[in-house]
Amino acid sequence: MSEIELDNMEEQQEVLSENSEGPENSEFSETSEAAESSETSSEASESQEPVSDTEKLVRSLVSDDDESEELTIEGIRQVLDAAPRWFLRQWKLLLLCLVGVFFYITNGYQAQVELMKETELEAELKDWRYRSITRVSELTLLCRQSQLEEKLREQGDSTLLTSKTAPYIIKE
Which DSSP category does 156 fall into? Predict the structure, then answer.
């Protein structure tokens, strides 16, 4: 049966269940009986059409009836036999999905490696900044006039002395 006929059957069953609650509309129940008889006649005409076992299995899985056949090993085999055909028809899509997953995973790993390198380089840069600040402060300490004079005295060079007079500014 087609999906439209299945939908019509469900609607008719709902109408029948509503009618069974209240026998007030006898005319409506007669029309529903007529629809039911036409439904059985359409089912009879459809039963003449060949229906594959896979289609029967799918219908039994989709239907909510308790009357449907239970899932058997044979039915499971039929579904599994149909699966390889589906994979063969969809191989391009599956390949595209696999390539996408591959790129997604490799991109994640690459991003992690780059983040680790970045944190490592930031730590190294911080270390070099501290070393630079230390060297600049040591150089500033050594270049002070008082430090230079003290080193000269330690070496025994007494010819250089601090000037007692202010420097002269030469004007042009």
Answer: T
pLDDT digits (tens, 9 = 90+) for 34-87: 445 555 545 544 455 666 777 776 776 666 655 445 667 877 777 777 777 877
In a domain, 71, yes or no: no
**Whole-prediction pTM:** 0.38
Rounded to whole angstroms, the Cα distance separating 56 from 75 reads: 9
Q: Is residue 14 part of a domain?
A: yes
Q: How many domains does the chain have?
A: 2
Q: Which residues contact 3 (CB under 8 A, 6 or more apart)?
A: none
Q: Kindly report the average pLDDT of the chain as a whole number.
A: 75
User: Does any domain span residue 146?
Assistant: yes
The 3-state secondary structure of 78-102, one letter per residue: HHHHHHHHHHHHCHHHHHHHHHHHH
Q: Which long-range contacts (CB under 8 A, 24 or more apart) does 110-116 make?
A: none
DSSP string, 4-28: HHHHHHHHHHHHHHHHHH-TT-HHH
Q: What is the pLDDT of residues 11-40, one digit of tens each?
A: 667 666 655 554 444 444 444 454 455 555
Query: Please, are residues 86 and 78 in contact by the beta-carbon 8 Å criterion?
Result: no
Contact 29, 23 (CB under 8 A): yes
